Amino acid sequence: MSPGASAPGMRITVVSGSELRLQRGRLGFLASQRVAPRAQIDRPTFTAEHTNSTSLARGFRQHIIRAHSRLCPAGCIGKIFCPFLITMSNTILIGAQWGDEGKGKIIDVLTAKADIVVRSQGGNNAGHTVFHRGVKYILHLIPSGILRRSKVCVIGNGVVIDPIALLREIDDLRKLGVTVARNLLISDCAHLVLPYHRLLDEQRELRQGHTKIGTTKRGIGPAYGDKAARTGLRMSDLVQPIVFSKKLQAKVIEYNRILHALGAKPVSFREVNESYLAAGEKLRPFVGNTVVYLHRAMERGKKILFEGAQGTFLDIDHGTYPYVTSSNTTAGGACTGTGVPPHRIDRVVGVMKAYTTRVGEGALPTEDMQLTQMLHNLGREFGATTGRKRRCGWFDAVATRYARMINGIDELAITNLDGLDHVDPIRVCVAYRLNGKRLGVPPSDARQLSNCEPIYEEIRGWNTPTHPAKTFSQLPPAARKYVRYISKLTGAKLSMISVGPARGETIVL
After folding, report:
1. Pick from 74, 104, 68: which is nearest to 383 by CA?
2. DSSP per residue over 169-230, as a string?
3. What is the pLDDT of residues 61-112, one digit of tens each?
4. Quick one: pLDDT at residue 210?
5. 160 with 153: CB under 8 angstroms?
6. Which residues pair with 185 in a beta bridge?
7. CA distances from 239 to 167, 227, 268 (A)
8. Tens of pLDDT along 183-218?
9. How far is Cα 264 from Cα 132, in angstroms, rounded to an integer?
10. H or E stretch including 32?
11. Burial 254-273, CB ≥16 within 10 A → b, else e
12. Cα–Cα distance between 88 and 86 in angstroms, integer?
């Protein structure tokens, strides 16, 4: 093929200049070379054989790869030079605040273009609420993709699973007409949450008094504790009755000693063994090696959406410790919790509310009781998992900027904009003040964070409903200015705005 020709279905754009910037993943490499005018090849659908594509690229004397491309469909994994511009489709979606950002709805919207939706961490302490055709669905362990036909949902190895709660969730979905069959896969490496975990969780919380963490008492922390101590039971054990019973008996003896010392009732080995083995038999068809499944799916070009639970500031490492959950809720957790390597990730989408909320204990620098009461009076901001009232505050750009840094957020989805429809003026925290010093990032120490004073800027409200808007231009001018402003403060591109709970109340930019 001559340099001036193009293959069918291929778009070629001539680019002039002598500098070629090559990027692989997040690491940039600069290659300076004198070249003739070069061709940028963009082929969304790859059909040619690799030998043909290589000869084609040689004809143009250039190999150009897009910044976020990490894989050539011809097999050039990990190579800098590739003959095609590739738009990868693997997306991590995380919460950029303290959880409850409305991730469930955004995941539901993004799932329309995904083939597989994967949950990578947490347990049934998390909850995603999705409204579809007038029906409210609350999901705790199963990914939101279950609500769409032809999508495969995967519960990854980083999740801790209460088998009884999972079966209850499956039954509830089936009663609502949702199919749960071959479209759900569960990692055989996922750890189990058992009754003694819940009892220990409750006892620890009761003894904390005013310093309690605010846990859901679902046993998530103790289950992750067993995982870290290498003494936990996994899904692979549950589907092997003899193995499971033997391991469970040893754990029940161990935990009953602890529970006795705390003054709690002991756990019955027989009851737990029978109920969990029965659950294991029902879950057996779903259990397998999800790492292999996901990698084979990527080889076939399937699009994967990694569904985050909780939020950045509940991360065990990067959150407001100790008022955090027991897993990595940030973008890195999506890789360790599924077995998908970082270089196979295309983009990270951060979800944040137009204001700030938090459930449980711990610092919330912008907390405002008047705003909290207003939102509660509207019937908003009650936890999907526990029903607890959420604490509410003004938008905290210090927190979201840090979240963008930790997660490598490429795009932002702003939710609950309609919650501010009748608030005027609107306050935005742009920095903290601690002991007379201005801070641009949140302190790591929980006590210091609780002593931080927010520095605010005020923005005009719009005093009109935003939910009728279907496009960005239909939003009130003041609302457009507000979302642009908080996106700029956060430091990432705005891609979606939610103005209501329904799928149709989403503006895609």
Report:
1. 104
2. HHHHHHHTT---STTEEEETTPEEP-HHHHHHHHHHHHHHGGG-----SSSHHHHHHHHHTT
3. 333 333 344 444 444 444 334 433 334 489 999 999 999 898 988 988 899 9
4. 66
5. no
6. 154
7. 15, 18, 20
8. 999 999 999 999 999 999 999 888 776 667 767 788
9. 43
10. strand 27-32
11. ebbeebeeeebeebebeebb
12. 6
- Please spell the DSSP secondary structure of 215-284, one letter per residue: --SSSHHHHHHHHHTT---BHHHHTSHHHHHHHHHHHHHHHHHHHHHTTPPPPPHHHHHHHHHHHHHHHG
Tokens 């306050």 correspond to: 427
The Cα–Cα gap between 226 and 414 comes to 36
Closest CA to 236 of 325, 163, 172, 175: 163
| H runs (alpha helix) in 8-102 | 50-60
Residue 347 three-state SS:
strand
On whether the CB atoms of residues 401 and 338 are closer than 8 A, the answer is no
Residue with tokens 């970082």: 342
Amino acid identity for residue 375 in this structure: L
CA atoms within 13 Å, Cβ hemisphere of 214: 20
Question: How far is Cα 127 from Cα 138, in angstroms, rounded to an integer?
Answer: 6
Does residue 171 have an active-site annotation? Answer: no
Q: What are the phi and psi torsion angles at 252 (to 5°)? A: -65, -40
Share of the chain above pLDDT 70, in %: 81
381: left (phi over 0), alpha (psi -120 to 50) or beta: left
**Cross-strand pairs, 202:** none
CA distance 134 to 148: 15
Distances (CA, A) of 397 to 38, 158, 311, 312: 42, 29, 15, 13
**In this structure, what token pair is assigned to residue 128?**
């995603």
Phi and psi at 82, nearest 5°, equal: -150, 140
Distance CA 51, CA 420 (A): 57
How far apart, in whole angstroms, are the C-alpha atoms of residue 463 and residue 489? 23
In this structure, are residues 184 and 146 in contact, taking their beta carbons and an 8 Å threshold?
Answer: yes
Query: What are the Cα distances from residue 470, in Å, to 235, 508, 509?
Result: 44, 9, 11
Residues in CB range of 428: below 8 A, 6 or more apart: 394, 395, 397, 456, 457, 458, 459, 485, 486, 489
Q: Token pair for residue 332?
A: 């890195």
- The catalytically annotated residue of 63, 108, 128, 201 is 128
Which residue type does 425 have?
P
pLDDT in tens, 403-460: 999 999 999 999 999 999 999 999 999 999 999 999 999 999 999 999 999 999 999 9
Catalytic residue among 42, 50, 63, 100: 100
42 is an active site residue: no
User: Is the pLDDT at 375 greater than 50, yes or no?
Assistant: yes
Distance CA 170, CA 180 (A): 7
H helix intervals, 284-365: 290-299, 331-336
